[in-house]
Amino acid sequence: MTLYVCAKGVRVQEARESSEMAITDWPENERPREKLLEKGAAALSDAELLAIFLRVGIPGKSAVDLARELLQHYGSITRLFAASARDFSARPGMGKAKYAQLQAVMELARRALGESVQQGTCLDSPQAVADWLRLNLGARQQEVFCMLLLDIRHRLLRMEEVSRGTLGETCVWPREVVKLALAHNAAAVIFAHNHPSGDSSASEADRQLTRALQQALALVDIKVLDHLIITANQPPLSFAQQGWI
Prior knowledge:
- This protein is an alpha+beta fold.
- It contains nine helices and seven strands; from the N terminus they run E-E-H-H-H-H-H-H-H-E-E-H-E-H-E-E.
- It has helices spanning about 30-40, 45-55, 65-75, 75-80, 85-90, 95-120, 125-135, 175-185, 205-220; strands at about 1-5, 10-15, 145-150, 155-165, 190-195, 225-230, 235-240.
- The strands form two sheets. Strands 4-3-5-6-7 form a five-stranded mixed beta sheet. A two-stranded antiparallel ribbon has the order 1-2.
């Protein structure tokens, strides 16, 4: 501890923890930026990666401290990215400029994954599709039902939002799905919808809808390859991997 002498006597104050020190005071091999350059981005924790984005902290808190507080406050990276400008800007050390930068990073990630999907990696890399859908649907507060329209080589033609509902429900009409698929000359489709509740398990209604869509599309010789349920925090659930398609 450190002793401070003042006019009214001796005041005792405990030394601050090292986590409150400026990152520049840390050992070089523990600094997030240097660690990334030496070991690669995958070696960093979520807080360390976010700290590199934040760049600086505030008095008494390093960028890593702020990053940890943000992740604790929002509960996940996905929910952090989905925060409103007003809510995010109200957090200590944040602001509209940081919010704009965060949204730019998010959009770059969406576009990078979108390019991967559009370059024909849809079936070669199912994880890329799941990651892309999670970025687009994971933090939505309304349930959204989408379909990926694929050509005969299973390359992405486009993504269509079929329906948007209130929390916990949405309505999808098989005839509308068939019309969309035919309008874009799709040879196959992948369905996806989000569960705002955060529970990625499939309900009986989800499975019944998928069977109805499969039957309707089979009549026009269009194959359903998968149906993914997306949440903010859990891994996507694949109907194909479950053996339901």
